[in-house]
Amino acid sequence: MQVTTTSVTDTRRSGTRIVTLGIAAIVAILAVAGAVLMLTLPDANAFNARVERIFVENDLTSPAEVQLLEILAQSGTAFSDTLASYRVVIFVLLVFAAAMLVAAMVFLVMLVILNRRMAQIERSGIEVSSLIISREENTVYLNTMGFKLTEAMMETLAVLAEARMDDEMLSGAQIEAMISGRSEADCDEAAGATRIKRLRDGLGNQMVSELLVKNIARRGYVLAIDKGVIEVV
C-alpha cells in the first residue's frame, strides 16, 4: 500500500513539473512572437512624419497644395489610429491564444495523470481504508460511501470478508455451499458466480465493484483489500 502511495505522489509531482514547464514554454513562445510582431509593425506616426517633412522641405503656398497637405495629414492620422487599434487586437488575440494553450496543456496533463492513476488502480486494486459490514442495516460502508444491499448480497460479502481475513480464496461452489449450508459437491460453480455478479451490481459502480471483488482465474474470488480494514458488525 505504501508503494502505491509513493508512486501516486511521484506521479503528481511529475505532472506538476510538466504543467509548469509547459505553461512557461507557451507563455515564452507567445511573448517572443508578440514582441517580434509588435517591433516589425510600422511606426504609427511614420506617415505623419513624412507629410511634415514634405511640408518643411517644399515651399507649398498655393491653396491647392495646402489642401493636399491637409488631406495627407488627415490620412496619416487615420492610418495612425488604425494601426493603434491593430496593436490592441493583436495583443488581445495573443492573450486569448495563450489562455487557450495553457488550458489545453493543463487538461492534457490532467488526462495523462488520470490515465496513469487508473492504470495504477487496475494493477494494485482499489485503496480501501475502511470496510464495515453492518448486518443489522444490510449496509456496507466502503471508505466514506454506504451501499444498501439485500440480505443475499450481504451474506456473499460477509463470506468473502471472512475468507479474506483467513487469507483464503473461494470458488463459486464454495461460496454457494457456505451460504446455502449444503455440501460443496452438491453446489454449482455458476450459482456462486451469480451471487458475485449480484453483489457487484449492488455495489453499483462497475469499476469499484470489479476491483473490490476480484476473480483470480482457476483459483476463485477474493476481496482485493487489506484484511486489517475489514470489520463485521
Name the descriptors.
Arc Repressor Mutant, subunit A, alpha+beta, 10% strand, 6 strands, single chain, 233 residues, four-stranded mixed β-sheet
Topology:
Blueprint: H1 2-40, H2 46-57, H3 63-124, E1 131-134, E2 139-142, E3 145-148, H4 151-165, H5 172-180, H6 189-203, H7 206-212, E4 213-216, E5 220-223, E6 230-232
Parallel strand pairs: 1-6
Antiparallel strand pairs: 1-2, 2-3, 4-5
Helix pairs in contact: 1-3, 2-3, 4-6, 5-6, 6-7
Summarize the structure.
This protein is an alpha+beta fold. Helix content is 68%, strand content 10%. It has two domains: 2-124; 131-232, Orthogonal Bundle (Arc Repressor Mutant, subunit A), CATH 1.10.10.
What Rg, in angstroms, do the CA atoms define? 36 Å
Total number of strands = 6
Oligomer: single chain
Which stretches are poorly predicted, pLDDT < 50 over at least 5 residues?
A: 1-8
- Structurally, the number of domains stands at 2
Largest sheet, spatial ordering of strands: 3-2-1-6
Q: Which class do the helix and strand fractions yield? A: alpha+beta
Determine the N-to-C terminus distance: 25 Å
Number of helical segments with 4 or more residues: 7
Kindly state the mean pLDDT as a whole number? 75
